[in-house]
Amino acid sequence: MATRLFPQLTPRAARALACGLAVVLAALALNGDSADARRQSERRVVHVTAERFSFTPSEIKLVVGDEIEIRLKSQDTSHGFKLVGTETELAIPKRGAGEASLIFKAAEPGRWTFECSRVCGAGHNFMRGVIIVRAKEKSDAR
């Protein structure tokens, strides 16, 4: 095939070119995988428990550029998790039925409120929390 694209190449040179391209493509693919694996291993996991009209912890503090995985688990009934002002909404299964998770990338400073999005009882409206993202400072060694 390479000889059709480059008729001046000998069959041996065409094979060498094809092998070289295969090595470059494999290296690029491996580098992309290792970058993803490195990002995942550096990602902090925050465990959040939903129970009786509260999230614990109810405040998560980050620095711009942080990427976290939030793992949500219920200690009683089914709950919801809604990141106000976004389309992020998850169902948190009832106790013993698993967990839900999401990735949050702190792209800019600010406050993001989260709340229960499934009516879970009389105190449902008080079931809230906040993600606080502060600007990165020069002293941050991240």
Can you tell me about this structure?
The strands form two sheets. A five-stranded mixed sheet has the order 3-9-8-5-6, with no helix packed on it. It has a four-stranded mixed sheet with strand order 2-1-4-7. The N and C termini lie far apart (48 Å). Strand 1 and strand 2 form a beta hairpin. 13% of the residues are buried. Helices cover 25% and strands 37% of the residues. It has two domains: 2-41; 44-134, Cupredoxins -  blue copper proteins (Immunoglobulin-like). The chain has 142 residues and is α+β, with helices and mostly antiparallel strands. It is built from two helices and nine strands; from the N terminus they run ααβββββββββ.
Provide a brief overview of the structure:
The chain has 2 domains: 2-41; 44-134, Immunoglobulin-like (Sandwich).
Write the topology of this structure.
Blueprint: H1 2-5, H2 11-42, E1 44-51, E2 54-56, E3 59-63, E4 67-74, E5 79-83, E6 89-92, E7 100-105, E8 110-115, E9 128-134
Name its key features.
2 domains, alpha+beta, 5-stranded mixed sheet, 37% strand, extended, Immunoglobulin-like, 142 residues
> Which stretches are poorly predicted, pLDDT < 50 over at least 5 residues?
33-39
Q: What gap, in angstroms, lies between the N and C termini?
A: 48 Å
Query: Numbering strands along the chain, what is their spatial order in the largest sheet?
Result: 3-9-8-5-6
CATH superfamily of the largest domain: Cupredoxins -  blue copper proteins
Relative helix content: 25-40%
Decide which structural class fits the backbone: alpha+beta
The run of helices and strands is HHEEEEEEEEE
Proportion of residues in β-strands: 35-45%
